[in-house]
Amino acid sequence: MYEQMVKSRYYEDQMVDVYTEGKVPVFNIGAGTVPGEMHLSTGQEPAAVGICVHLTKEDTVTAPHRPHHHAIAKGVDLKKMTAEIFGKETGLGKGKGGHMHLFDPEVKFSCGGIVAAGIPHAVGAALTSKMKGKDWVAVAFIGEGAANAGAFHESLNLAALWNLPLIVVVEDNSYGISVAKKDSTAIESNDLRAAAYGVAGAYVKDNDPIAMYKAAEEAVARARSGQGPTIIEIETYRFLGHFQGDPELYRDKAEVPGLRQLDPILKLRKRLTESEKVSEAEIEEMEKRAKQEVDEAYQFARDSNYPEPEAALNDVFQS
């Protein structure tokens, strides 16, 4: 889990710099090296690793438009993922989907788009598992703002009605774009909504990866054994803006430095070393491996070719 968190963080740190290449400063306008908007997950790593460590290739994960930490934790091919974000033909979708539409059938991962769009897909995967008599689990990651969307309630209702192996992970990073949770949500935490559907709910405080691991372990076991859905909400922190170039006028300027003191990677590193179960040398080796994999992925993307213009509609329309 620590190695996956470091990999995700280093990946996002590199993307901060790469994304600005060729763009007009401040608001990042222009195509540049990486086209389109960019939503980074720096600080939210525990939500992804805490549950994906319990999953297999046969389990489905759907992610929203801030998907890199989920993809990395699920085992998406990092080179192909980076090439896709760069718009290259070696990408997962041959450069056609980009950052917000990552899809890797090899590990059953898809980026369902914005807000709650991925939850119905996860319900479909969970229904498939039940109809085929498998123990596959479907996990839908969403932001706390998406829990107020109709798709959240419709999906949970069906999942509960059909007793499906679905886990919805709500990443509460305090803001739905620029709207504070307290201004949009009538309840304190979305795990409380589980009672309305007669399913299990769990709340993870302080962006704690170990607590997330334990809550997810119970939820996955529940789903695999036919005991139905779970809603997990994790209190997490978005260190960066909603998108790269976000002026963050809605946010107190003193807030982010304070959050950085709660960095889950530094906290887990300290926890590991103080337990004396992991040496400093082992941790440094994990960090080295993670960073090397990320560096190789970015180089692969840079070295790859853009699709030829005449191939733009290949694999899109069929005559």
UniProtKB/TrEMBL annotation:
Keyword Coiled coil: yes
Keywords attached to this entry: Coiled coil, Oxidoreductase, Thiamine pyrophosphate
CDD domains listed in its UniProt record: TPP_E1_PDC_ADC_BCADC (cd02000)
Domain spans labelled Dehydrogenase E1 component: 36-310
UniProt keyword RNA-binding present: no
Source lineage: Bacteria, Bacillati, Bacillota, Bacilli, Bacillales
Protein name in UniProt: Thiamine pyrophosphate-dependent dehydrogenase E1 component subunit alpha
A molecular function (GO) term: pyruvate dehydrogenase (acetyl-transferring) activity
Domain of life, source organism: Bacteria
Organism: Planococcus salinus
Coiled-coil residues: 269-296
InterPro entries in the record: DH_E1 (IPR001017), PDH_E1_Alpha_Subunit (IPR050642), THDP-binding (IPR029061)
UniProt cofactor(s): thiamine diphosphate
Stored Pfam families: E1_dh
Gene Ontology biological-process annotations: pyruvate decarboxylation to acetyl-CoA
